[in-house]
Automatic annotation (TrEMBL):
SUPFAM superfamilies: RNI-like. This is F-box domain-containing protein. Residues 1-24 are annotated as: Disordered. SMART domains: LRR_CC. It comes from Lunasporangiospora selenospora. GO terms for cellular component: SCF ubiquitin ligase complex. One of its GO terms (biological process) is SCF-dependent proteasomal ubiquitin-dependent protein catabolic process.
Amino acid sequence: MGSSPQEQHHREQDGADEDSIGRPAGIHSLTPGLLRYIFSFLAIQHYDYLNHRTHTLFTPLEPLTLVCKSWNSIASPLLWQERTFHGWKAGEELNVFLNMTENADFSSTHEYGEFVRRIEIIDSHDVVDKQNGQFVINWITPDVVLALSEHCSRRLSDLTLVFATGRKVSNELEEGLIPWGALAESCRRLSILSLANYNCPTLPTSSGHPLHLFATMTNPLTELVLKRCRSIPSETYQQLARTCGKALTKLVLLDSDECLGTTEIIEFARSCPDLRHLNVSWVDTVEPKINDDAVLELTANCMRLEYISLLDANEISDVSFQTLSKLRYLRNLILPKAGSSQSGMLYRQESLIALAKSCRYLEQLHLVAPGATTSRFFEALLFCPRLQVLVIVELCKGLLIDQRFKTLGLAKYVDPESTESYKLVWHKKT
């Protein structure tokens, strides 16, 4: 007897189920989104000590690009989005990288330069330059910067260049200046710029100064980091402030020279109201530049400041210190020299108390306050439940320190590198 149509349908359905169960899933059965999610677990978290940020590196994905075309199309953009060059092999790796980006038209796979989003190049200090006795190899040349601007400009948003120390200051007779203008003109997505040890050419800004052209032509930056950079014209600082404007959230100007002054800090304060992170200092040979005018502008315009580190602020007085209590989002306040001036610019106890009561998000407080930190000040710190680190220099000798900090949940820690007589450090118990 023949089977009914209903029974035949059931047999066909059972056979299809068996085939679907028995057939193994292939690599092509996974969607690109799922593959990208799986590949993300192979990433390495790298902490950038230069800029105090964590980057995601996809270096382990290199073998995956050789599996098949579909995996290559997913892994290559992740693998190439961050490029870091430093150490002995930096020059060779940099040349290979630039050759691959320049010859992308002849490649059978991708235009690798279009994947790059962040580049970090650090000059080497491992080989002696016999001409000036410095341990220097200059990877960062005008040709390299020009190649980056031509072949890695589509998505480049984060650029870090650490020049070698000992490089002579450029002048108007030197050939091959860094083509900052070409970089600013082509890298329209650049939002983070970090330069270290850069000696700016001694050229008048009116005759086409390279870095000044960059400040004029670039898109608004969200982060600007300049460490140990020399001879940057004051006009360039002011132009950078006006160009960045409301986009700038992080400003780091460390070990600056005499070209950076109060006028430039005030310009940043007025032009960049959304500034969240401010870290400024000068070299030892330059007189401190932070005064009351600069701090008053910062507290009046940059109300969302969370991090303030002014390593050379011993020219400010209680007049400007009173206004710090306006910064309700302040988390870190580092003024290691403020109040130590011979002119007697000291803080009043009421100003310290107002700061502690208003800035309840404080996590780190580092200041000089001789004679002002009485028991009332420590009681006010109870309004700061997030306080993790407290550093105070020249405390009142008669203060019952241990008892007060036992209430705050902070433990005393003696700084082994401290040479100051009454410097005490506390940190949250763990």
